[in-house]
Specification:
Length: 498
């Protein structure tokens, strides 16, 4: 390379460096959020006397229920859930896109080799033949290179968008991990509530059948009438009718849980009863903390950052695209002379391309990019507002469901006393059996309601953790530990790896 060519190339690179000091398009700024000063707090100590687990926002909060079976089910879900495994693969794809984008910043060097035989006139040829028009063999080996100068920052905006896309994919994986953990706990709690309701229904049915047998004997000996027998039979029928819907619901919840766990339909192991689960008490946190805690909010923001960068990437298309080109190699009329002195070749240059007339094509893309950014800004603000709403709703539910359980427990205790006393009065002839029937029916319904409210109380705790974004770190760590093969692209289930 001559000194003149070298100086020209250096001058071009220096000018490009100065021009690339800033990138076209808007720099990202987080939109202003009108965050509430504080949430309506749930009580820190439950008034129903239930046990409390002590956990922080980064812990595996589901372990605070102190149910080993539940812990294992969550582990299985984080290991085998299909949506999670897809999310892990999408992160790997986003990382590949980022690497591809980053590669555009560097010179693109290729190799070229050719052997040609024919008649050459000696014009526009790398090698001028001694006898133009004669039959000649020409061999060439070269390393051509192209380096696109990011003068107006289009590549930087593309890299910024690819980085945000990778961050969004990671946030999506973390959000799905937290969602899977929450879904497993929700289904399990619902299942244990249905188990409790089923146990109440079956026990009540057995009690009613025992009473029916007694009144059948009384009717035979004339100490009871057919009205009383029919009343008791109606109780038996009502208790029997309550069981099939519960069995149906149990089967559906078991299948739902197995689906989340990536399993075929079947039974699910059980741990502690619904009334023995320890209730975790998550921290309320400050409203602004949700922006950093909840992975779905961070996902929405990364999508906004990507769209914001795409505006600059499209805007750069309005400006010239400058690339440096060059090659170095060797050529000769005899293949054996390719590497001899005097056979070397080189060239260096610059290419400038740019739009002259596109009929509004680039402007349309620019309008579309700005519209996408505006739409995603609204979605980000919606995600933040949704986070605040979910947290406040969950805090209210946590407080009120605790009160509901206390009320249901008192109701069951009162109705148990009522049923016992009414039965004693009937046996001594101070009340008719209709009073006993009403008392027992009310007790049966109250016991079912208590099991449902106990589930609601536990589910409200899960909702609060989910709303505050707690536990996603632990869920994501367990997910990645169990799915290393997918994260590294070595999944043995993939036929491409065989």
């Amino acid at each position: 390379m001559s000194h003149h060519a070298a100086r020209t190339l250096l001058a071009v690179m220096v000018c490009a460096a100065f021009l690339s000091a800033c990138a076209v398009g808007p720099d990202y700024e987080r939109p202003d959020v009108n965050a509430p000063e504080q949430f309506r707090s749930a009580p820190t100590q439950p008034s129903d006397g239930s046990a409390l687990g002590t956990v922080s926002s980064t812990d595996a909060w589901w372990e605070a229920f102190e149910d080993p079976v539940l812990n294992q089910l969550v582990e299985d879900g984080l290991s085998n859930n299909r949506d999670l495994q897809s999310a892990i693969a999408r992160v790997r794809k986003a990382r590949g896109t980022l690497i591809t984008t980053r590669g555009k910043f560097f010179p693109q060097v290729e190799y070229y080799g050719a052997a040609e035989r024919g008649q050459f006139m000696g014009l526009d040829q790398t090698v001028v033949t001694s006898t133009p028009g004669s039959l000649t063999t020409i061999g060439t080996m070269a390393l051509p290179a192209t380096w696109q100068l990011d003068v107006f920052g289009g590549l930087r905006r593309q890299y910024e968008a690819a980085s945000a896309n990778q961050a969004a994919a990671i946030a999506s994986r973390q959000a799905i991990a937290l969602s899977v953990a929450g879904e497993v706990v929700n289904i399990y709690v619902t299942l244990r509530s249905l188990d409790q309701q089923l146990a109440v229904a079956r026990q009540t049915l057995e009690n009613y059948k025992t009473t029916l047998r007694i009144f059948d004997l009384r009717f035979r000996y004339g100490t009871a009438n057919m009205v009383q027998v029919s009343q008791i039979q109606s109780q038996v029928d009502a208790a029997e009718a309550a069981i099939p819907p519960l069995l149906l619901a149990v089967g559906e919840q078991e299948n739902n849980l197995n689906f989340v766990l990536g399993r075929n339909p079947g039974t699910v192991p059980r741990g502690k009863p619904i009334d023995q689960l320890v209730l975790p008490t998550p921290p309320a946190g400050l409203p602004s903390d949700l922006l950093a805690r909840r992975p779905d909010v961070r996902l929405s923001e990364q999508q906004l950052i990507e769209a914001n960068a795409q505006i600059g990437a499209v805007k750069a298309k309005f400006f010239p695209n400058i690339s440096l080109t060059g090659s170095v190699g060797t050529t000769a009329t005899a293949l054996g002379s390719l590497f001899t002195t005097g056979s070397s070749i080189w060239d260096v240059g610059a290419i400038v391309t740019g739009p002259l007339f596109k009929g509004g094509e680039i402007y349309g893309q620019y309008m579309g990019a700005k519209s996408d950014q505006q739409a995603l800004m609204s979605q980000y603000l919606k995600a933040v507002e949704s986070a605040f709403r979910d947290a406040d709703n969950a805090l209210i539910a946590t407080a009120e469901t605790r009160k509901l359980v206390v009320a249901r427990q008192k109701q069951v205790s009162t109705l148990t006393t009522y049923a016992n006393l009414s039965s004693m009065q009937f046996n001594y002839g101070y009340a008719d059996y209709l009073t006993v029937l009403n008392a027992e029916d009310s007790l049966f319904k109250a016991q079912l309601d208590l099991a449902r409210s106990q589930a609601d109380r536990a589910l409200s705790q899960v909702s609060l953790y989910m709303a505050l974004g707690g536990g996603w770190e632990a869920a994501d760590a367990k997910t990645m530990a169990a799915n290393k093969a997918i994260a590294t692209g070595d999944d043995p289930r993939n036929p491409a790896n065989r």
